[in-house]
Design brief:
Layout (H helix, E strand, L loop, with lengths): L1 E3 L5 E3 L3 E3 L5 H5 L5 H5 L3 H9 L7 E4 L3 E4 L4 H10 L9 E4 L12 H16 L1 E4 L6 H8 L6 E4 L12 E4 L2 H8 L4 E4 L3 E7 L8 H12 L9 E5 L8 H8 L9 E4 L3 H9 L16 E2 L4 E4 L21 E2 L7 E3 L10 E5 L4 H8 L9 E5 L11
Parallel strand pairs: 5-6, 5-8, 6-7, 8-9, 11-12, 11-15, 12-13, 16-17
Antiparallel strand pairs: 1-15, 2-3, 2-14, 4-10, 7-17, 18-19
Helix pairs in contact: 4-7, 8-9
Length: about 375
C-alpha cells in the first residue's frame, strides 16, 4: 500500500506521524515552528555541511568526490582542461563499464580508457579498469560514507541507503567542480518515505521501487526533491535490498535520496574495510520534520521479501603508485594528459585469429592496447 499525504506531516521522534500542528506541543512538550522542524531532516544536515553560501535557501555546494564512466569522462575532463584545471581538487573515480561503441577493427573503447588512465596520472584520480567494477558498485563499496555527498555523471548515482546524498547530473556540473566552482541550487524540499512492516518472500526491491514510482511519477510528487527513507520498516530490509530500491529513485524524478542508517549499514561498510565511514543518521529524536508526505507500507499485499541469496562482494586492489591493471589512485607531474596507444590483433588464439581474417568474422577481431603514458606500464592482456 502506498499512501500519499497532500498537506504535509510532522515526524515526531523519528517514528510518529503527526498531521495536525496543534497536536505538536502535546507530543514535543513545546511549540515548534515549521522552519525549525525542517532542520530536523537527515537531508538538511548533510546539505548544510556542504553549503558554502551561508544561506540555506540558496545553496552553493562542494561535493566530497566525483564519479564518471567511460561514456562521459572524456568530455568532462577535456572541458575542465580547457577551463584551466591543473589537478583534480577532490577524489574523482573514473570507471570503464559503460562504453559499447562497436567500430570494426577500431580501438574507440580502449582509446577512451587509456585517456582516463593518463588523466588520472596527470591530475590525480582513481582509475578502475574494465571488467573490475561497475561505477555504482565501486562507489558504494569504496567511496560512500554517512554524511557524504557524491556527484556523478550518471543519472542513477544514488547511494542514499549508505547515508550518502548522491546526485546524478550532466557533465557540465562535474567540470565546474573540477575548476573550483560550486553546485548552485535552491534548497530542495524533503519528502519522507515512511516504511512499516516487513516484506514477504517472493518480491524484490525492484517491485517496491516500481510501486513508489507508479504512485508519485505522474503527479510530480517528488520532482526535484530529496526522498528520505525513515520509519521502523527500514530495519527489516537488508542493505542490498535498500540499495536496490534506492538506485531506482531516479525514475521518480527526485533530485536525490537518503536513508536512516543502522547496524546493517555499519556492517556493510565494515565488510568493505571502511568502518570509519559509518555514522548513525536518523531524523532527530525530540525534533519534528516538516513536508514528510509519503507513507510506504510493506505489510502483506504484493510486496514480498525474496529468499536470501549469497552476496557477491567485489575483490579489487587499490595501488598507490604508477602501475596499471588495477584500480589505482595515481598522481604525478609531467605526464601527458592525452594518450598514445598501439593496437594489435590477438595472434595467440587460433580461433579468434581465423575469425579475424575471415570476411564474416572480421568484426570479431580482438584488439589489445598497450598503454604508452610515461611513468607507468599497462601490459596488454594475455
Amino acid at each position: 500500500m502506498v499512501k500519499l499525504y497532500d498537506g504535509g506531516v510532522y515526524l515526531v521522534n523519528g517514528r510518529e506521524i503527526v498531521t495536525d500542528p496543534a497536536a505538536l506541543p502535546g507530543k514535543c512538550g513545546r511549540n515548534v515552528t515549521k522552519e525549525e522542524a525542517e532542520q530536523g531532516t537527515i537531508a538538511y544536515g548533510i546539505l548544510k555541511a556542504h553549503n558554502e553560501s551561508g544561506d540555506m535557501q540558496n545553496l552553493r555546494m562542494r561535493f566530497d568526490s566525483l564519479t564518471s564512466h567511460d561514456i562521459t569522462y572524456v568530455g568532462i575532463i577535456q572541458t575542465a582542461r580547457a577551463s584551466g584545471m591543473k589537478k583534480f581538487p577532490m577524489p574523482y573515480v573514473l570507471t570503464n563499464c559503460h562504453n559499447s561503441l562497436c567500430a570494426v577493427g577500431g580501438t574507440i573503447n580502449e582509446d577512451d580508457h587509456m585517456f582516463a588512465l593518463s588523466a588520472a596520472h596527470k591530475y590525480g584520480g582513481i582509475y578502475v579498469p574494465t571488467n573490475m567494477a561497475v561505477i555504482h558498485s565501486y562507489n558504494r563499496e569504496m567511496m560512500s560514507g554517512c554524511g557524504r555527498m557524491i556527484l556523478g555523471s550518471d543519472s542513477h548515482t544514488r547511494y542514499g541507503a549508505l547515508g550518502t546524498l548522491a546526485v546524478g547530473e550532466g557533465g557540465g556540473e562535474l567540470a565546474k567542480q573540477l575548476v573550483g566552482r560550486t553546485y548552485d541550487v535552491a534548497r530542495p524540499g524533503v519528502v519522507a518515505i515512511y516504511l512499516t512492516g516487513k516484506p514477504r518472500d517472493g518480491v524484490g526491491p525492484q517491485d517496491v521501487a516500481l510501486s513508489i514510482i507508479g504512485a508519485v511519477y505522474a503527479k510530480g510528487y517528488v520532482k526535484n526533491k530529496v526522498m528520505e527513507f525513515v520509519g521502523p520498516g527500514v530495519a527489516n530490509l537488508p542493505i542490498e535490498y535498500r540499495n536496490g530500491i534506492d538506485v531506482m529513485t531516479t525514475e521518480t524524478t527526485c533530485w536525490s535520496s537518503i536513508w536512516e542508517t543502522d547496524q546493517n549499514t555499519k556492517d556493510y561498510l565494515t565488510i568493505h574495510g571502511r568502518p570509519e565511514a559509518f555514522k548513525a543518521a536518523e531524523a532527530r529524536r525530540g525534533r519534528v520534520l516538516r513536508r514528510m508526505r509519503v507513507r510506504r507500507s510493506l505489510h502483506g499485499g504484493m510486496y514480498h521479501r525474496p529468499a536470501d541469496a549469497p552476496q557477491l562482494h567485489l575483490h579489487h586492489f587499490r595501488i598507490e603508485g604508477e602501475r596499471g591493471g588495477h584500480p589505482a589512485r595515481v598522481s604525478g607531474e609531467g605526464q601527458r594528459a592525452d594518450h598514445r596507444c598501439e593496437a594489435r590483433p590477438d595472434e595467440q588464439n587460433p580461433r579468434r585469429r581465423n575469425l579475424g581474417r575471415s570476411g564474416i568474422g572480421r568484426g570479431l577481431l580482438r584488439w589489445h592496447v598497450r598503454q604508452r603514458v610515461r611513468g607507468c606500464g599497462y601490459p596488454a592482456r594475455p
